[in-house]
Write a structure and sequence with these properties.
With about 140 residues, the chain is mostly helical. Helix content is about 85%, strand content about 0%.
């Protein structure tokens, strides 16, 4: 069995929530909302449906928990392969997971769904930043 620090996985999941709140709030929230094609009325309507919002946050939390758990496993294997540990191993693991799995899959939003490259960059900037930070957190929290 692969040794995983479950407390670190949970902390990485919380990191995802905090980073997402900043990323899609004060940092890029207005631009992201505009690129999504949402109006102020759309935002107010979404905020009014508390059950739907909580369900979405819950599902996203589970998704982030799974991603953090898998990243922790990837880190164990990467440390063995790279013969590195700490920040370097965390950054490399986060980057290679992003470029190998997240980035290619999310290209479909631009290529087939008609979303803009700018929106893709905002969303993937979040994914890359999360994976890099979570990789470092998991690598340092042995």
């Amino acid at each position: 069995m692969v040794p995983v620090n479950y407390l670190a996985v949970f902390a990485a999941t919380i990191l995802s929530v905090v980073l997402g709140s900043l990323w899609y709030g004060p940092l890029f929230g207005k631009t992201w909302t505009k690129l999504m094609g949402w109006t102020k009325a759309d935002m107010e309507k979404g905020a009014a449906d508390k059950n739907a919002m909580m369900r979405s946050y819950g599902i996203q939390f589970v998704g982030s928990l799974i991603m953090s758990f898998v990243l922790a496993h990837s880190l164990v294997f990467a440390q063995s392969y790279l013969h590195e540990s700490g920040v370097s191993a965390g950054l490399q693991t986060g980057f290679w997971n992003w470029i190998g799995f997240v980035m290619p899959v999310t290209l479909t939003s631009v290529l087939w769904e008609g979303k803009s490259w700018k929106l893709w960059l905002i969303n993937n900037g979040y994914n890359l930043t999360f994976l890099l930070l979570a990789g470092v957190l998991l690598a340092l929290w042995v």
